Amino acid sequence: MDRLMEILEELRPDVDFENETGLIKDGILDSFDIVALVGELNDEFDIEIKPSDLVPDNFNSAKAMYALVEKLMDE
User: Is the Cβ–Cβ distance between 12 and 62 less than 8 Å?
Assistant: First the structure.
């Protein structure tokens, strides 16, 4: 989770990722942020985030993103 938080803070230092739960729903992260984030997560964690994984529920919070990363690492 620490590395995920570092990646998120590098991407958008202005966002409180520890407490925010509506990153997509509230428009805090835009499509460019998600594209950059997916590439970074794929590289860092050696996973493949597929188009079917690109749903708001997987990206609304750091906790949800971490759950997705863990799930994909287990596959």
Answer: no
Between CA 66 and CA 24, with CA 16 as vertex, the angle to 5 degrees is: 65
Domains of the chain: 2-12+23-74 (1.10.1200.10)
Long-range contacts of 30-38 (CB under 8 A, 24+ apart): 34/59, 36/11, 37/7, 37/8, 37/11, 37/65
Owner of token pair 């590439």: 39
Per-residue pLDDT tens digits for 51-71: 999 999 999 999 999 999 999
Give the pTM: 0.94
**Encoded tokens for 73:** 């690492």
